[in-house]
Amino acid sequence: MATKTVQIAPPTQEASGEEKPKSPTKKVPLSTKSLGLSLFFSDSSSSQMDKHKDSREYGMRDSDIIQQSIESTPEQIAANVKLARLQSIFKDADSDGEPGLSMSEFKEALRRTSNKPIDEEEVEKLFMKMDANCDGTLDWEEYVSYNLLEYQEKSQMLEMLKEKPFPKDVKEIKTRHHDNIVRVIYSPHVHKRWTRLDYTNGKYVTVSKDGIVTFWSMGLRLNRIHTIPIPPDRATQPWFVEMCCIYNVNMIALASTDRDIAFYDITAKKFVKRYVITGLENCITTMDYWADLESKSQSVLVWGDTEGCCCGVYFEIQRGSGLFGSLPSKQEGAKRISFAELLKGHYPNIKAFRLAGIHDDWVSKMSYIPEIGCFLSCCQSSTTSLYLGDFLKKKSPAYFKVDKGLFAFDYCPKLNIIATGGMDYIVRIWNPYVNNKCIVLLRGHTKPVVHVVLVGKKHQVVSIDKSKTIRVFDLKDQSCIQHLSGRILSLGPFPISTIFFNPGLQHLVLATNNLGLLESREEDERYTEILSHNKPVSQILYNTIFKVVVSACEESVISVWDIETGEKQMQFVNAHTAMEDGFLTPLEITAMCFDPPLRRLLTGARDGSVKVWNFNVGAVLQEFSMPEASMVTGIICTPTKFYITGWFRYVGVYGDGEDFESFKIWPKKHEEDILCMAHHNPNLIATGGYDGTIIVWLRETGHTYCKLNAHKCDKDNTFIASNYRGDSAETETPVYDHKCDDESRIDSSESTRELDPSPPYILNSSTHQRMASVPKSRNVRFGGLLNQSKMDVEDPAQKDEDRPEHNDPLKPEESFEHPLLVALNSNDDVTGEKKDCHFTRKEYDNLTKNYEAAIEKMLFLETRNYADKDTAVLVASGAEGWVRFWSVAQGGRLLGQFNAAHKADSSVNTMVVDSENRFLITGDTMGVVKVWDIFNYCIRRRITDDASFSRFKKLTKTFPYLKQFSLDGVLNDEKSEILLKRPPPISSNPDETLKEPLILNSFRAHTKAIANLEYINDRQLIITASADCAIRLWTVCGKYIGTFGERWKQLPRIIKASAIKRTIPKDIRRCGSAKTMRVLNGGKIPYWSKAVAMVKQRGFARLKAQFDYLQDKDDLGSLVMKAKEEDDSSNILGKRYQRQVRHKMPPILPKILETPNSIAVYHTLPFADLSPIDITQATAHLDEASQKRCMASMKDHHKRDRKGDSPIGLVGHYNQVVHKSMGGTKHLAPSNRVKKVVSRHTKASVNTSPEADDRSTSTSSPIHPIDMSSPQPTTGRNNTKLKFPVIE
């Protein structure tokens, strides 16, 4: 495939033969503004610069330019003059006579033309941006092309970054209206203390022509429906044409074709007609209402009719009364008010006005404007299109004339402008004090504009035409920022009859016979999450020259970010595209790199295409594709060649700036897809495949240098295992020895987790002996490190037989679990039941070798000696979270490995190291970032104990995590669990190679997988890019600075973590662990610290006074006295002050520590042994005495009766009631207390069983009155038989 070279400069206007579209008059200043060379190019200057770009005559005079532009406008002539002057300055700056300006000549030209001092660094950056071909010189063509392309790309970027106020989809709400909805209003819940309307607490009300009134919640959920009944004097229902809300008295006003206005009370769930204004001459077409909530002294109701008249009623609302006096009662019905009487002033505190002949046609809309004390009305007439007037005639009226009239208007008090829409498809913006000419014309509609809304908060205009097309215009640059076609609005066949815009929620409600809701995308900043891209981020790079971050996402969008402020400088879309099903589809960018001078950007996509960019202006310099249309996964750029690899399993070489004939292919050595690529200066390139194979190539020749694979131990790589069996004294014990010579390999205890808690970084002798006693057979068993790390915390003198047995994964009875083991098990039954769920270590290793061995990321440690066999220079990470350190000398071998994943099922996708190879930073699929100390990991180096200990102290001050969590000296439970679930392969010799460097930091940076990492060496900052569409900036110690896309404060030259404000991303705040929160808070626990301090201050003294075991017995009385003195004394008057009391206060006792809604728990409670108590039975004498006492009280009550009563008295009445109940007479309801008692005892005696007591009579026998002289005692509680005596 031939190489395609793209010219930086765009085609001129003459070459293209097409007229360039006009842009808005407001322009974006160029980046050279700070250097005194900014040009605000207008349309004419841009076209003239295109014409003069190819000209080589620098001596053009101003008169020549003016002569050539006689027919041009004055703006074009001025632009031509400026361009000619700039061209002459450019020519004069060329002092050596060669074409173009050098760096020094460019600086000298800027000094002569700029009156301000210039920054040398900024000038060099600007020169490198303009020098597109990187030849060290800047000619006129490159200068002009840079300005044009930068302006073009920035204009497109600003156009794309403009906020879309509404979503594309309309939420449709079905209604029960059978006809068009004539009006949608908002009824707020008005409080008597409120001075303004609250648009977040209320309800919506809709009415249709057929008289159906519907109430809706704020979320447009149906609350209730009312149907207006047909008037008794009519056979059919009139049409309802208008409605408005009388919000200060909680009413709505409805106008119908009966030429009246009915007022309905909607308090709570009412819908009652209260007033009716009758006697209107014409039918109402529009209404509006306003009330003064601040002073509550005035309200205005205005309306327009079919004759073009404007009417208004001014109310003076008083407390306790309605609009027209007191409210009518239910019997009276609705109170009827004649409009003629209102005009004559028959009602106190009410003034009515009628202005006839205001318009020549129906009044389309009318609204009262309290800010200017006037009303606005419009009609479809060319002469009286818009009227601004006052009923009180305090201000002179004015007409705004528009051809063919107006349908709608809106006034914005914040901007003090009027927006109108009419038959000519144009939206006009007016100054209310200038009526002869509009301010702005907004075009774009193809049908008459019927609805207009001004959004003053965002400086926008929302307009709707008859075809249901919605357009949103930005008033700042007078352009359309959003267009919603009427075809996507599924609101039925009816046109949009009315709308309502909620300024509080920024929601737009549309109405036909159904409702449509366009919810604003504006959300509360407290809950919104800042995103850098709209799609998951795939690649990021940091440019050290221009101090920018370049990122790419799956939507094929490349963005350039300023590291100082976090703002986006440049963005170009559709970097890689392909035709799929007849549509141009953006392709995901899968690989990215800079050229050695860091001036150009190379990108590769999943279709095999590669492009070379000038990323400062977004111009393509070179483009080519790989023969196989497969994903590009790695790109390396050298001064003369490009090395490209991917899923096509080989390395392709292109010449920089050459055609396809220079393309070469290296031998195909990989059996699986290549996933990553790394470069080591000057002559090594490494490629990693899906099967875990790493091949190191010689860059100049393309020959294989070595081949590495941790999952294979064949005959070709037998030396890997033999060298790590302890045959060499240099590699027998990877610990620091005081007596070792300079040639010995030293893995200091600083870089391993095989640490003893005291002192740091120094292994004790017992650990040294146990590590030396590791068996050195060929079949090495895994688990040595785990067992050893557990033995480090045991007693060295403990016997082997007393130690607990540890699991050995090589034992036959030990089973391994992996999701793929179960999925690929061939012993599964047809029914889906597993016959055997135990898998051996060999089966597990075969699985990881075939499916879990992918190399996701590789990098070279540039500061290390790659020719040393005992020094690891290649780091590889990938599946299951394993990070392995390889030596490439003498065929290569594995020197160390550890698991850097946060959980067992995650993998390490990306890594990065600092320039000095001290820190290794890893990111996994759970969004966790970890920082490892690799300064002395797998390296031949001599270091003293004092230097090691001092370095550890410095790291402890830098990393809060190291101070809080990394001093345990052994592997934690999580790491042990990961190693048990995902052990390393046996072929990697884990007993010798499995060792973990010291972890310095660990925190969760994203909620999804981290795609890429970058490290800024001069400021010690970490840049993370994730699949959650966010790119974030952190300090190396874990302090959060910000997310790219939001603006933060200018970063200082030297960043101190203590000076950064403590902030946490919102998504991490929701799901972050306690360790992550502590790291992000700088090692502090702010909320727990306050709680602990409060408990210590208030509760500990009470606890000590309450519980004896917390204090000495001798101090108990003193503590109680001290607590009493603190309560009674005064800090101002002294300890001798005593509080005055009106009564004796109870003694102060220690308060019980209680928890709400829980049972109080006591440590001890005093008690005494229980002693038996004799229970005496009630005797017959006690029953007899009780009965006598009761009869005596009844006699005393009878004596107190009046003398004129019947002699029967209470006793006779008692006997009559008893005889009536026994003789079977009709039972009368008791009328007093005695009757109630008798009735209750009679029922009890009848229903009692005869077996209850032998002393009682049978229930079947009648009850006879007995004499008081022979009372019968009753026994028992529930089985008692009663006989009622006759009282004499």
UniProtKB/TrEMBL annotation:
Q: Which GO terms describe its molecular function?
A: calcium ion binding
Matches recorded under Pfam families: EF-hand_7, WD40
Compositional bias segments (type: Polar residues): 1269-1281
The record, for PROSITE patterns, names:
EF_HAND_1, EF_HAND_2, WD_REPEATS_1, WD_REPEATS_2, WD_REPEATS_REGION
Question: Which residue ranges traverse the bilayer?
Answer: none
Q: Which UniProt keywords apply?
A: Calcium, Coiled coil, Repeat, WD repeat
Segments carrying the region annotation (Disordered) are 1-31, 730-815, 1221-1288
InterPro entries, sorted: EF-hand-dom_pair (IPR011992), EF_Hand_1_Ca_BS (IPR018247), EF_hand_dom (IPR002048), Quinoprotein_ADH-like_sf (IPR011047), WD-EF-hand_domain (IPR051242), WD40/YVTN_repeat-like_dom_sf (IPR015943), WD40_repeat_CS (IPR019775), WD40_repeat_dom_sf (IPR036322)
Q: Where are the WD repeats?
A: 530-571, 589-623, 1003-1036
Q: Which residues form a coiled coil?
A: 837-864
For the keyword Repressor, the answer is: no
Q: Where is the signal peptide?
A: none
Q: Which residues form the EF-hand domain?
A: 81-116, 118-153
Biased amino acid composition, Basic residues: 1233-1243
| Residue stretches of biased makeup (Basic and acidic residues) | 735-756, 791-815
Name of the molecule in the record: WD repeat-containing protein on Y chromosome
Which species does this protein come from?
Answer: Patella caerulea
